[in-house]
Automatic annotation (TrEMBL):
Record protein name field: Glutamate--cysteine ligase
Native species: Candida tenuis (strain ATCC 10573 / BCRC 21748 / CBS 615 / JCM 9827 / NBRC 10315 / NRRL Y-1498 / VKM Y-70) (Yeast)
Pathway: Sulfur metabolism; glutathione biosynthesis; glutathione from L-cysteine and L-glutamate: step 1/2
ATP-binding listed as a keyword: yes
Class of enzymatic activity (EC top level): ligase
UniProt-listed Enzyme Commission number(s): 6.3.2.2
InterPro entries: GCS (IPR004308), Gln_synth/guanido_kin_cat_dom (IPR014746)
MF GO annotations: ATP binding; glutamate-cysteine ligase activity
Family to which the UniProt record says this protein belongs: Belongs to the glutamate--cysteine ligase type 3 family.
Length: 750
């Protein structure tokens, strides 16, 4: 989840003295990065994924499950090439990384996959399987490496093994001990600095799932007098909501991320834009988090929990009155005398929502180092704010939300020759302060290092991340081709229980990205509509019960006829000799599609605003009579670019097996979109609601949690012997029967 520098991390009150230094040098580093890489071209479409795991300890005698916080050393062993397991990891192209939680492990491919090689879309699954297998060899049998988005009883009494009390000074949480936080000094410092900058603990309130006996009261809040902040819940917690007060509730959740490399910066900018409206769709399609802190909640995903968990904005930045006795300016470095004047005189709002205080004429309020204090609408962990292609290429109105800018940064970037959009993008990210700074790393060589840039960049946790390359010494510049280039990271997806699903979602997004670059659809809608979709994606069963804004099918700038026939049946026609592939290539029996012209989407799909209409997830992914949906873009891409184009029909058993598996990946996502297969959130919620341990009070007890995790473990292992019916319910019949007979990806050459 970010840069791991070694050294002594500075406490917020020390660190904040260097805020401008970090930003200023970070921007110089960015300018040098652009100078070095701006013109690189024709980089390969490489890609990779990141999976986040939790170590869950099961006690079959006591029927309890806990998060284990004592096995974090396995990450070092797994990466130690002096050990056999470390060698195996390298031989199998696997790498392990620390994450926020001491009970967490992250794993990725060591070297990226190649988007032009069909087999790599399958290799990712065997790679994921290997990551799990190698980690599991380092653990006792009762500690399972599970891909749970959120641990249902995180923050409940005694939820860790070994037990630890929630009395830690870093988070000051009433529920989470500091011992859940990664031991690397960066993480507790990050936790404490967010709290200190904000001026109070973070606060997350999730609506409880309202059931017959639900009290609509979070009765788990203890009456404690250890820290001053212990009383904050009185103002910070909301009735009818589950209250959480610590970074760990969010950053202790797991997700699935994918990163792809574009051939050049312009392609990366367009890909970033085109994926923006896809992000809420995949949040909803991957929904896997219906339970927090032992409560069934009235939402399905982790997103707003993390948003709140790392929200370091002060009261003034959030435009809220402070709690009684709390500082309006949190941990910002502002003179006491200025503050007391302001408190008396009040103020107004200038252009762009910046606070303006009359007491100093019309000067903007600023910290002692000159940084203006702004109203900031979103947390650092949030959806994106601006498109990246040049505004001349799209309707200006699509960038329709207010996103504050760091003006001096903007001016510096413009002066350095950045175009206004690119400059605005980074000037927006650079409204944030660095959260953790290491004393040994304050001074850096801006021609060789980019830690200051990365410090700000990698703590802007947005739905997408536009990733510039790193900076290299002149000696290395010669072979830039072998160094990572301009990349886009896709970050909303919740982690799924099985490697099959995670491979399916990864392949879907990577193939979609490749298809986007191949067919260049126009997916632009107002950013505010994407934000609305983010809210929708949180709702219970949003996939089946809600609609999402998307560019009107009529305005994708694609000819629907050209995608006709490229539905899931294409795989069967291609694989089986004798089917009339050529005819279908032109569409079903060459029948052109007229519907699109006859009934424009903006009439069928009301409301329609600026060419954005509301669609069901099924329509968006699976298309309809008049439109390809996202799925057919992918299948056409496979047909024309990823299978040898000299082939009329599949000519080898291995190719057929590969395509068969990819078909099932796509089919699985397609069925989730149509509602034929439940989301994990839906599946888990129904297990809770139907459990004998459930008392219609929205509470998930230890016993119920044990049953749930046991089931999740059985599903993860694809244990058809003991969980046959559950696995069929989970995957749906078609995919379950395929997975049951094809558990492993075992092709001779993939
Ligand atoms: N665990 C975080 C999430 O669920 C992501 C952390 C990271 O950026 O690696 O979104
Ligand atoms: Mg991570």
């Amino acid at each position: 989840m970010g840069l791991l520098s070694l050294g002594t991390p500075l406490d917020w009150y020390e660190s904040r003295k260097h805020n401008e230094h970090v930003r200023d040098n970070g921007i110089s580093q960015l300018i040098n990065i652009f100078a070095q890489h701006q013109n690189r071209d024709n980089d390969k479409f490489y890609w990779g994924d990141e999976v986040e795991y939790m170590l869950v300890e099961l006690d079959d005698n006591k029927k309890t499950v806990k998060l284990n916080i004592d096995y974090d050393h396995i990450i070092d062993d797994l990466n130690n090439s002096a050990l056999e397991v470390g060698q195996k990891a390298v031989q199998n192209n696997v790498a392990f990384h620390p994450e926020y939680g001491r009970y967490m492990v992250e794993a990725t491919p060591l070297a990226p996959f190649d988007g032009n090689i069909l087999g790599h879309y399958l290799e990712v699954e065997s790679n994921m399987r290997m990551r799990r297998f190698l980690s599991q060899t380092q653990l006792p049998a009762n500690i399972r490496l599970l891909t749970l988005t959120s641990f249902p009883r995180m923050g409940c009494p005694g939820f860790t093994s070994p037990q630890a009390k929630p009395i830690g000074p870093a988070s000051q949480s009433l529920f989470l001990p500091d011992e859940i936080i990664n031991r690397h000094a960066r993480f507790p410092t990050l936790t404490a600095n967010i709290r200190k900058r904000r001026g109070c603990k973070v606060a997350i309130n999730l609506p409880m799932y309202p059931d017959k006996n639900t009290k609509l009261l979070d009765d788990s809040i203890p009456d404690r007098e250890l820290f001053d902040s212990d009383a904050e819940y009185r103002w910070a917690s909301k009735p009818g909501h589950v209250y959480m007060d610590s970074m760990g509730f969010g950053m202790g959740s797991s997700c699935l991320q994918m990163t792809m490399q574009a051939k050049n910066i312009d392609e990366a900018r367009y890909l970033y834009d085109a994926l923006a409206p896809v992000t809420p769709l995949f949040l909803a399609l991957s929904a896997a988090a219906p339970i927090f802190k032992g409560f069934l909640v009235n939402q399905d995903v982790r997103w707003n929990v993390i948003s709140g968990a790392v929200d370091d904005r002060t009261f003034v930045e959030r435009d809220l009155d402070p709690f009684p006795g709390y500082d309006y300016f949190g941990g910002l470095d502002i003179d006491k005398s200025v503050k007391s004047h302001l408190q008396k005189m009040g103020g107004g709002r200038g252009i762009n929502g910046d606070r303006v205080f009359n007491v100093y004429g019309d000067t903007k309020l600023a910290t002692n180092d000159g940084k203006s204090v702004q109203k900031i609408p979103k947390s650092r962990y949030a959806s994106i704010d601006n498109y990246l292609v040049n505004e001349s290429e799209i309707d200006k109105n699509f960038n329709d939300i207010y996103s504050p800018i760091n003006q001096p940064v903007l001016q510096k970037l413009l002066k350095a020759g950045f175009d206004p959009i690119m400059a605005k993008h980074f000037a927006h990210l650079f409204i944030r302060d660095p959260l953790v700074l290491f004393s040994e790393r304050v001074d850096q060589d801006n021609t060789l290092e980019n830690d200051h840039f990365e410090n700000i960049q990698s703590t802007n946790w947005q739905t997408l991340r536009f990733k510039p390359p790193s900076l290299y010494s002149t000696a290395d510049v010669g072979d830039l081709k072998n160094k990572p280039g301009w990349r886009v990271e896709f970050r909303p997806t919740e982690i799924q229980l099985t490697d099959f699903e995670n491979a399916a979602y990864t392949s879907f997004i990577i193939l979609l990205s490749k298809a986007i670059l191949r067919f260049r659809p126009d997916f632009y809608i107002g950013i505010s509509k994407i934000d609305e979709n983010m809210d929708t994606a949180h709702k219970v069963d949003a996939v089946t019960d809600d609609k999402f804004w998307y560019k009107s099918f009529n305005h994708w700038r694609l000819d629907a006829n050209e995608f006709h026939g490229y539905d899931l049946s294409w795989f069967d026609r291609f694989i089986n000799e004798g089917n009339d592939l050529e005819a279908y290539k032109q569409g079903y029996y060459n029948e052109p599609v007229h519907n699109a012209e006859l009934t424009p989407d903006c009439i069928k799909h009301i409301p329609c605003v600026n060419n954005a209409c509301k669609y069901t997830m099924n329509e968006l992914i699976n298309g309809n009579d008049s439109h390809p949906g996202l799925l057919r873009l992918i299948i056409k891409l496979i047909a024309i670019d990823l299978v040898p184009n000299t082939l009329k029909h599949c000519d080898s058993k291995i190719l057929a097996l590969k395509l068969e598996r990819i078909k099932h990946y796509l089919m699985f996502v397609s069925k989730r979109a149509s509602g034929k297969v439940p989301t994990i959130a839906h599946f888990l919620r129904s297990k809770v609601l139907n459990s004998p341990h459930y008392h219609k009070d929205s509470k998930v007890s230890d016993a119920l949690n044990y049953d749930l995790i046991k089931l999740c473990d059985g599903i993860t292992k694809l244990d058809f012997e003991n969980y046959h019916d559950e696995l069929y319910e989970y995957f749906g019949t078609a995919v379950a029967s395929y997975v049951e007979t094809n558990r492993e990806v075992s092709f001779e050459t993939v």
